[in-house]
Amino acid sequence: MSESSAAILQFASADVEASLAELGSITASPSPEEQAVRPAQRPTAVTKILVWQTFSDQSSFDKCIAKVISSVLGVKLVSRERIGEKLRFYVVIDDANPKTMEQVFDAERVICGRFAADELEFEVLPGEELASVIPTKAVSLWRSA
Amino acid sequence: MPSFPQHLAKAKDNIAFVAFLRTSGTTYFDWMILAYFLAALHHVEAYFDHCYFKSYGNHYDRREAIRMDRRLSTFWNHYRALETYSQTARYGVKKFDQKYIDDRVLPHFQVLTTGIEGLEHKLKL
Questions:
Q1: Residues of A in contact with B96 (CB under 8 A)
Q2: Average pLDDT for residues A61-84, to the nearest whole number?
Q3: Torsion of CA B30, B35, B37, B40, to 10 degrees
Q4: Can you tell me the distance from the alpha carbon of A22 to that of A14, in angstroms, rounded to the nearest whole number?
Q5: Residue ranges of domains in chain B, CATH in brackets
Q6: How confident is the model at residue B108 (pLDDT cuts 50, 70, 90)?
Q7: What is the CATH code of the structural domain delimited by A3-143?
Q8: Are A105 and B94 inside 8 Å of each other by CB?
Q9: Among A9, A143, B23, B57, which lies 20 to 30 A Cα-Cα from B44?
Q10: pLDDT in tens, A30-42
């Protein structure tokens, strides 16, 4: 594995729970006391990349998706879970800037082109219930500093 | 398989529905977003029927067709943004307002529909 690939995967096998807990501060509903002092919560979205059928190996997806998606300013976390032969990637986006979402769609086009022989589907979900959207057993591939 | 005039008529119906919601002072902004997306979807379907006599019966196939089409792929981000906002409006709990629609949804709709009209003059809405 190259140095850059190693850097991209530096969080591989790390527990995603800590990342979600930290990101929870973006999306969690504040208590009434907190509401008085906290600014409005920052909008968040989650992109799910569903790989239904693939002729490519998992590490190719990990490297490509982490690399392409993490280049988008405003992406907070990329994680992945494997269920049998299927892969699901989760991308947490700070949705305050509309440009971020557009760049994620650019990334979607690049990734779909790279894995043209595979069956991929992108879903963008509102991130209000972040913890319930991303299973804590998902492996963190990348997170913003 | 519906023809492109039928798709254009459906797109126009949805635009008229948006106009109705706007003049009625609605608070049901999620329906306005959905109508914008449906108008865009039918406009895209009109393009595929007019240019290739093709129709797409599900979102996945339509997305792939847009991505692979040399001309329509220019508007990929705008279509995907509208599709995403409509999914959020339908299945999410987010509350929208007119400013959010005017700032974040309407510009995508305008670029997409103007773009399609620019590609084929018969597809004017």
A1: none
A2: 91
A3: -160
A4: 14
A5: 4-123 (1.20.120)
A6: very high
A7: 3.30.70.100
A8: no
A9: B23
A10: 455 544 544 445 6
